[in-house]
Amino acid sequence: MPSDFETIPRETGAADGAPPRSEVSLTINGRDWSGVIDNRVTLLDLLREEIGLTGSKKGCDHGQCGACTVIVNGRRVNACLSFAVMHQGDAVTTIEGVGRPDALDPLQAAFVAHDGYQCGYCTPGQICSAKAVLEEIAAGVPSHVTRDLEAPIATTAEEIRERMSGNICRCGAYANILAAISEVAEGAR
Amino acid sequence: MRAFSYEKPGTLAEAAAAGAREGAKYIAGGTNLIDLMKLEIETPAHLVDVNGLGLDRIEETAAGGLRIGALVRNTDLAADPRVRRDYALLTRALVAGASGQLRNKATTAGNLLQRTRCAYFYDTNMPCNKRAPGSGCAALEGISRQLGVVGTSEACIATHPSDMAVALRALDAEIETMRADGVARSIPIGEFYRTPGETPEIETVLGAGELITGVTLPAPLGGAQLYHKARDRASYAFALVSVGLVLREDGTGRIALGGVAPMPWRVEAAEAELGEGAAAACEMLFAGARPTEQNAFKLPLAERALAALLAEARS
Amino acid sequence: MLFDTPAKENPIDRAREVGQPRPRIDGPLKVSGTARYAYEQRDVVENMAYGYPLGAAIAKGRVRAIDTAAAEAAPGVIGVLTTLDVPRHALGPMNTAMLFGGDRVEHYHQAIAVVVAESFEEARAATALLDVDYAPEPGCFDLERVAREIVGQPFCEDDALVGDFDDAFLAAPVQLDVTYRTPDQSHSMMEPHATLAAWEGDELTVWTSNQMIAWGVRDLAAALDLPRDKVRLVSPFIGGGFGGKLFVRSDVVAASLAARKVGRPVKLALPRPLIANNTTHRPATVQRLRFGATEDGKFTAFGHESTSGNLPDGGPETATQQSQFLYAAPNRLVGERLGVLDLPEGNAMRAPGEASGMMALEAAVDEMAEKLGLDPIEFRILNDTQVVPGKDTPFSQRHLADCLRLGADRFGWGERASLPARRREGRSWIGIGVAAAYRNNLLMKSGARARLQEGGGVEIETDMTDIGTGSYTIIAQTAAEMMGVPLARVTVRLGDSRYPVSAGSGGQFGGNSSTSGVYAACVALRTRIAERLGADPETAVFEEGEVRWGNSAVSLVEAASGGEIVAEDSITFKGLGEKYRQSTFGAHFVEVAVDAATAEIRVRRMLAVCSAGRILNPVTARSQVIGAMTMGVGSALMEELAVDKTRGFFANHDLAGYEVPVHADIPRQDVIFLDETDPISSPMKAKGVGELGLCGVAAAVANAVYNATGIRVRDFPITLDKLLPHMPPF
């Protein structure tokens, strides 16, 4: 152990007074929500801790796993890397807004049919991401595996795999997730 | 994460004034800043949310180029038809980076200002001259496989993690800013990043409160525009080495590298060697390189990746 | 129920539910985000507070003092508990590092304090205000150094010596002597370790994420010095474990102690950057393999020695486990050595032992086949054995050769160039590789309670866990089969220490053992029902919702009209484990492409052929296998905890630094299960399969990389930097 170990400057600082809070109003799964929250609350923690929508998962809290993926104003984002106060007026869709156990969205049903999960923890993020992926391909947003940047983009297995790569599944259900998404993509065509 | 106050100004002037406050920091996409705030590597007392400033358009310039607003999201920049047609290198680099979710949030300006991904920068228990100036560099004798081989210093061997910036460097982008006093300026990307020297905590030439408002691309270069990002896993990983190449029909071109230096790495003189091949170009690109035992592979890797891109561009 | 003789025909053999490809019964909850994991338990307690842990900033030494004043004064803070406030506690029998208590720091990021506050944000912020005074001590963090120091020392267990290895090896006309290295690996399950702890008087309930409920109760009660009946542990959903949640970890102990201190329920999750060093990992190994063979390819000498490190009193990585069983050879030297390292605690990760042992063994076997000029598959089959080498114990079943041959046929083994670096497609070198798969079949006592409800529904309660394995579903299928009811009539309740003790999830014993326990409980329930109806339990048939005997038939609804009927039993395995070696076998096939310029390796297709007894549900079993294959790709190509040997910690301690496979890494995966049952194993005639799918995958990738490039990397993971110096110029 190096002798200078104890002398490393440590970044500290005292909090003075109550942490600043802000009022925020947004729409979550079609319902309005407003409240006053600590500025530090992420969109993910707003959903999970303040509102009780625990479908969006916290896997890493640092944008490294994708389990927290939700759809904001039509685009998928990592809810863990977003302050809730920055979502004033936004429309958020979480897995709870995609479908319910007794009224599954076709993509959710396809995940069940193809066993596109195991432990289930990354699953809501995978599904939210997959919904957006299909729209991104349809909208012609290129990906790393898109060879011709100016031609229409086909919904190939390679495209889906690349675009879903921001959603880690440690159980390794990738092949089944691909099957579920592909089935829905084909149904949509 | 330290507590912070928050505001979202509606005009550039308000933003510049707010950004000049002690402890203030601008936030746009937040994908790197929030990550670092959670670890108290960044500890702003005041966040200035610049998302209300517009700055989200891509416009054609009189010079035949493009002006990209600072807040254009990576996804939108990559997908813009003009970028795909005329600056394919930029699209290729952008979509090689991060994940779809992150690219939806990350902005052009924020991407330029990403901090390093060095494991010791990220661990506040460890010495790191970039995070805690004067504390030392644990990476020099530690884990350095991912880290820089050229343009580094005794104080810091961190790399700049951006893919987008590699393309912008090859494309001679200029970075437009507004200083706290309201004065606008334009900085060639080649002059934007600072070598670490003894002060690795200072990464760019931006002044306190200076806000990036946009990035300008000159008229299209044409030619084949290719990008290869070498990494252990196939996606959602930082580069071991990335190579951006523009090769025009007359044989001239541009090379910029990622994953090797504290900034997107370009040595203009190396481009004169393109006709001689990758080895000659890399000799100039890596002049003065000081790799560690763990990352010396980046030199042959870059050379071979460049050779492959040259072959592809010529085929 | 004692299982000590091979299973005869039983209701499971009807296979109307068991063995059928049923979708998971918990699927709709998982895909809709309504399955509640530990940190998400909201309605179970009131007045819950948030805990946030602090990990030690040094690898070894002592905590002299912790100044908590600033943290305690911070907004929202309810209380601070430090490791100096509580003594070292008793540990479970399979753990070595302290979870929370005492002044010793045994490894980096060991939990040393927890701050409790009204909000997560306040707890996290205040934790950063703790000022810790350490007395660091030097430590040893370098396995290579340890391996050099202890070379030649006795093995941990009695030397598995057969014949005279040294003489036979020296005399062998064909020899191989190679050393392989496997790195430290992280479970990296998606759900962080998390606990909500609540006290009611002297009784503690923890909602946590744990694979082994009864072990958890035992270890937590010991840690807190409580009677076991005062501790309740609940884990209905577990977001992945892979061995990392076999035991209670610091989140459980710290949340429980903090909750007691502040007098409120506390929930706490380990922040991702803390997990790699705070919890356990699969230890790195240095493995020396020495083979001697005749010219025609028969092993005459088989040596496999492995060295790993661990904290004092820790165990070795049992990387030679399979080497006692996999190939015949008259002279054998197999064993493990253990050195002391001051890195975090090494412990079980999916297929402990075999996972890393097979990485080295099955790559070395390919090297030997090449030396002998033999096809890798034929060489393996040539050295196959139907009895345990050196003993005469038969395997209950052993279809290794069938797996290899069937896989070769399906995968197109014939297309493989027998010489390396011969196949090129565009910028890629293409190669095909094979490896045997082997994993012991473990059996664990397992209990359940079966209830015929009024209305005719069947309910199963057991403390078995579902960590993604499909326990809910296969248990429901077992109960439906046994009771002759549709799957929809079965309710399964898992993961609560109030239910009968089960096998739990680990060592690929969970599926077979827990369903066998449910089988036993259902046999008991059938007996109770038959008795109530006056039928002979031995001959009564339960099918289509009825109990039928003689000319009588009574519906289960009617049978339960006089009130619910409950039975509880467990399965205990005895005797057959000594008479027969029970193992699972398979073959892994992999095709890779290696970029001729950059040496980047990408897997192009994969096949696993598995011989593992009855497959209880081909959907969930296949998922287990493809998931394991995916983890095997990670082992082969990217996963490595980067040891900082100066500062003594895993530097890449998050999911950006420790890379696990993503979607883009995983190609088409095929799985074939041999159609078989193994009556020696259990009344279910099933065996484990979830770890078999991992054992050998990385070697198959390594062998494919060799076939593609002619480069043999003996230091996992196989990354481009290890290939580049040997690649032909581009």
Automatic annotation (TrEMBL), chain A:
Transmembrane regions listed in the UniProt entry: none
MF annotations from Gene Ontology: 2 iron, 2 sulfur cluster binding; metal ion binding; oxidoreductase activity, acting on the aldehyde or oxo group of donors
GO cellular component terms, semicolon-separated: periplasmic space
Assigned keywords, A-Z: 2Fe-2S, Iron, Iron-sulfur, Metal-binding, Oxidoreductase
Region named Disordered: 1-23
Domain 2Fe-2S ferredoxin-type stretches: 22-98
InterPro entries: 2Fe-2S-bd, 2Fe-2S-bd_dom_sf, 2Fe-2S_ferredoxin-like_sf, 2Fe-2S_ferredoxin-type, 2Fe2S_fd_BS, Aldehyde_Oxdr_Iron-Sulfur, Beta-grasp_dom_sf
The keyword Transmembrane is annotated on this UniProt entry: no
Full protein name: 2Fe-2S iron-sulfur cluster binding domain-containing protein
Automatic annotation (TrEMBL), chain B:
Pfam family, one: FAD_binding_5
FAD-binding PCMH-type domain sequence ranges: 1-222
Keyword list, A-Z: FAD, Flavoprotein
Species the sequence originates in: Amaricoccus solimangrovi
Designated name of the protein: Xanthine dehydrogenase family protein subunit M
Entry-linked SMART domains: CO_deh_flav_C (SM01092)
Top-rank lineage group of the source organism: Bacteria
GO molecular function: FAD binding; oxidoreductase activity
UniProtKB/TrEMBL annotation, chain C:
Pfam family, any one: Ald_Xan_dh_C
Domain of life: Bacteria
Residues covered by the Aldehyde oxidase/xanthine dehydrogenase a/b hammerhead domain: 32-138
InterPro entries linked: Ald_Oxase/Xan_DH_a/b, Ald_Oxase/Xan_DH_a/b_sf, Ald_Oxase/xanthine_DH-like, AldOxase/xan_DH_MoCoBD1, AldOxase/xan_DH_MoCoBD2, AldOxase/xan_DH_Mopterin-bd_sf, PaoC-like
Molecular function as annotated in GO: iron ion binding; oxidoreductase activity
Chain intervals for the UniProt region annotation (Disordered): 1-23
Transmembrane segments: none
Name of the protein: Xanthine dehydrogenase family protein molybdopterin-binding subunit
Organism from which the protein derives: Amaricoccus solimangrovi
